[in-house]
Model the fold of this input.
Amino acid sequence: MAMEAAGGIERTLAYALADAGHQPRLVNPKRVRDFAKAISPARNDRIDAGRIAHFAATVALAPIERDLVRERLDKMLTTRQFLMAQLIAARNQARLLRVPAMRTQMASHIKLLRTRMAAVDHAIAAVVATDQAIAQDRARLCTMPSIGAVTATALLAWLPELGRLSAGKIAALVGVAPFDDDSGARNGQRHISGGRVGLRNLLYMAALSAIQHNAVMKAFHERLLAAGKLKKVALVAVMHKMLTGLNAMQRTGQAWNAGHVCVRGVTTAGAVE
Done:
């Protein structure tokens, strides 16, 4: 039994099936499309359903396992993300307002959004506190400079594979793994694509902070720039390095240690890859 991931709405059905004793599996729509292209370009609902079933029967997929704490954190983080988008939009709008009454009204709206975000953060902290393992994992991830409570919580809620997969696979899941674009004698520019966008956006903000306040990441970023890398490319590399380091920390149960040295993805003590 399998279904395509569709932005989260599919999970209600998946969880209901799991509660009823079935073993539903979620599949990546892109992987199904790529799989289907090798069979036939024809499409309709019946054909698509058959392709999903064929894909699920061909590729080993782990069944969905319910985790009520992570489900609650997922919903809270999504709400926080929505409020943050509203707050950014309100701040941008406030800069353009010239009518005093409108500026006052927008200031009140911004204050309300901040209050609501604080309430969500408090609720997230309360949920984390109910699960000792998640609380310990979050505290460990936060030992990496520039990783705050929100980003650490999102990693645990939105990336349950953290610490269980290789550095390359975890980077591909989040969408910070560079893919080749070569053909014949042409060497195309490496690029990132797909992945878990909400988590990647948080990691992007963490990387911006890290190149200022995390000595290891700052030095790494400066080396890349000195080598002629584009700023965007260098920042994505920092995101990749941070994520693989967090993956190693979660796998080994070790806190961040700037003394851990990375040599071609192999660590001396498991904290940075």
User: Anything to note?
Assistant: Residues 2-58 form one domain. Residues 179-189, 261-273 have pLDDT under 50 and may be disordered. The first helix runs from residue 10 to 19.
